[in-house]
Amino acid sequence: MKKVKTFFRYDNIGLLFILPAFIYMMVFVGYPILSNILLSLQDVSVRNLVKGEKHFIAFANYVGLFQDAVFLKSVKNTLVFTISCLIFQFLIGFLLALLFSKRFSFAKTVRGLTMIPWMMPMTVTALMFKFMFSTDVGIINYIFTKLGLIQSNIEWLTTPGTAMIAVIVANVWIGIPFNTILLSTGLTTIPQELYESASVDGANSFQKLTRITLPLLRPTIESVLVLGFIYTFKVYDLVYVMTEGGPVNSTHLLSTYSYKLSFDMFQYSKGSAVANVLFLILLLVGLLYLKITMEGEED
Predict the structure, then answer these.
(1) Residue 15 has pLDDT above 70, yes or no
(2) Number of domains forming the structure of the chain
């Protein structure tokens, strides 16, 4: 007992404060991850689950995934979905951040209103966009028809090409506030004296943007892009509610395909393998984010 008290004195006392969080993470995060990894190395389906037979098959599930056309399509869809969302979320969010950095009436009020999409439950947003993109009563088709852009209604959610566009638009709408608020915060850290000095030297707006704003905003931009990648890459509920991965697997992401394998096709081990592939990719991106953060603190 005396040794324990000695160990937790001075610098080691901090371990007591993180102990509850460590136990929580091990129970509710660590155990499910390890259990899922073990499950992916076994052959578990609805046929042998009841019997309690869990045959160890090593990496056979992973080998089978890379021979699965739907899995490969899901990987492609996930990359297309993530990159497309990142591009539009960042560009629109950056423009809004530049706008809100200017002083004008109701700037704070409008900036607060832009946070509504981020605060709304994902399922509510998905149902709203599902209704907006519906063929007969959707407002998207109504507006396009009134503007003369289309002659007949577009079947947004039941056509492979347009279904992906619909879910990308919905996710971009959700992600814009996140980009805006972080980039706005980054802009406030740039001293205004730099812009004033540049104006005295005759620099125009574009030169201020490329020579001052973007270089000094680089750490914030890197963090926004990496975090945006993590949040977007694992999107599940939005796509599932809007399209359920269809039509013809055209909107299946790694998250939705893992769910389908596990709870629709009852191939639990294969579903776990897909989830682990998703976890591995996000782990690598998370390590990259930590590296960027640590380098930024050192600078």
Answers:
(1) yes
(2) 1
23 within a domain of the structure (yes/no): no
Q: Is 168 exposed, middle or buried (0-12, 13-18, 19+ CB in 10 A)?
A: buried
Q: Rounded to 5 degrees, what are φ and ψ at 265?
A: -100, -5
What's the rounded Cα separation, in Å, for the pair 182 and 87?
16
Point out the least confidently predicted range of 49-58, 161-170, 183-192. 49-58
Distance CA 105, CA 59 (A): 61
Report the C-alpha gap between 148 and 145 in whole angstroms. Answer: 5
- Residue type for position 243: T
Give the C-alpha separation, 289 to 225, whole Å: 9
CA distance 277 to 59: 12
Q: Smallest Cα–Cα separation from 227: which of 168, 289, 172, 295? A: 289
pTM for this entry? 0.87
2 inside domain: no
Task: Indicate whether 59 belongs to any domain.
Answer: no
SS3 state at 104: coil
Which pLDDT value is given to residue 255? 93
Q: Assign residue 102 the CATH number of its domain.
A: 1.10.3720.10
